[in-house]
Amino acid sequence: MRLIAAAVVFFLGLFVITSLITAVLPANAPEWLSGVAILVGFVCSLVLTNKLVNRPGTRFLGRPHAAETPEQLAQDGMLTAVPYRARRAFLVEELEDEGPHYFIELLEGSVLYLNGRYLHEHEPLEFDNKIVHQRGFPCSEFIIRRRSDDGTAVDIQCSGSVFEPEVVTASDDEGDFRGKNVLKDGDIITGKTYDEVKAARSGRAAAG
């Protein structure tokens, strides 16, 4: 989704900026000057796209600067670590590129919702019918580290035994995890048990 937004912002910005620049050029302006105008529009649109789409402090491709690595954030006191203990979990596959959705029953009985691309690195990876990367999450004990300024998840540190999701379902439409009252990464679901949440989604078969 972010890639689509970036493409729209970039091309719209390029069109508007280039149009404004060429509009102020005299009618008899040399061709090379028009080329310069297009180049300036390209650079300005690229900068604008970075500012609007990426989080502040990131590079053009959305990669964090060295000062934003987990190690540096920890040294600067910018990380908060929350431990969890889990019994079981089920997985809802991502619709686009927002990352997998996990509903996790915690040991005390509440349900933790997790979602984000940071979860990708813990998913199993298969290549040529062989598992080349083993599952690393969910697990019985884990710690989630988040930025203390905006609550964004940085990583998960698993210390317990890894287990498979009980059920894998698919997002059925674009409104599944969007709109008003939508769950956010790290939310604790109240008013429903884990079994109730799972039963409400168990009829949706995962793709493939």
Structure write-up:
- By secondary structure, this protein is of the alpha+beta class.
- The protein folds into 2 domains: 2-53, no CATH class; 70-201, no CATH class.
- Helix content is 29%, strand content 25%.
- The protein has 4 helices and 9 strands; from the N terminus they run H-H-H-E-E-E-E-E-E-E-E-E-H.
- It has helices spanning 2-24, 31-53, 70-75, 194-201; strands at residues 79-93, 101-106, 111-115, 125-127, 130-133, 141-147, 153-158, 168-170, 188-189.
- Strands 1, 2, 3, 6, 7, 8 and 9 form a 7-stranded mixed sheet that branches. It has a two-stranded antiparallel sheet with strand order 4-5.
- Helix 1 runs antiparallel to helix 2.
- It is elongated.
- The two termini are 22 Å apart.
- The relative contact order is 0.13.
- The model is unreliable at 55-63 (pLDDT under 50).
Counted beta strands: 9
* Average residue-wise pLDDT: 78
Q: How many structurally independent domains?
A: 2
SS-based class: alpha+beta
Question: What series of H and E elements makes up the topology?
Answer: HHHEEEEEEEEEH
Largest sheet: 7 strands, mixed
End-to-end separation: 22 Å
Oligomer: single chain
**Low-confidence parts lasting 5 or more residues at pLDDT below 50?**
55-63
Work out the strand percent: 15-25%
Count of helical regions? 4
